[in-house]
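Figure caption, in words: inputs first, then the predicted bound structure.
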Amino acid sequence: MGILFNDLVFGPLQSRRLGISLGVNLMPKAGKICSFDCIYCECGWGDFQKESGLTRPNADAIEQALETRLKELHGTEIEPESITFSGNGEPTLHPQFPDIVDRVIRLRDLYCPKAVISVLTNGSRIGDNKVFAALNKVENNIVKLDGGSQACIEAINLPHYAFDLTEYIEQMKRFEGRLTIQTLFLRGTHNGKRIDNTTEEEVSLWIGHLKAIKPRRVMLYVIERATPEQDLEKLSKEELEDIAEKVRALDIEAEIYA
Ligand code: SF4
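Bound structure (iron/sulfur cluster present):
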């Protein structure tokens, strides 16, 4: 069982990486919709049969819910520092994502102009020009890169489409450094297969991708909550710090969350 968000707008929550963060969930309350099915996803395993019957909230409903909440929060101590697209799945899969981004920018400018807009994305739709243009309008894109080799990333993220790592990296390069990369480091097994994105080889390939993408920041994580795959190991802070040092050696900011 995973945790699903029940509201279109949730929080604000105090986030270690985003400060006071108001979440915007573009996905259904009843289940996850995602192009990946990560073995560590806090929403739990995806369910394709269920997914096809789920209805996403429309842009009007999201705008109304966000405006109501921003009015309530305006001028209070918990006025958001970030309006954050996250929730039950991949936000860029919403067919109205570009329109919703424009509406969220308008409301941010009106009610909390100092807040940044953040998008937590798995990067699967950056190749769509409308999605890419929308992402370029926000200040804080946080894109997933969970390993160095195609095989390792596929084993961790379980993409539902013909994932091509070379293409994925090329799409990230289009941001010209205006993005943050987030990586969850883990070891474990899934369906009898050993998974480890912390090996020397994986980390070295991952570092090579960072050199090509040149992100402004890298966030390194470990497992924090219950995961759908039970057989996963949480890394120590020291191990994560060792990997972060390799990122800093590239003159890229690295933050660890362990
Ligand atoms: S990309 Fe995010 S929402 Fe999608 S399966 Fe992975 S962790 Fe879950």
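Residues 34, 36-38, 41, 43, 89-90, 122 surround iron/sulfur cluster (CB under 6 Å).
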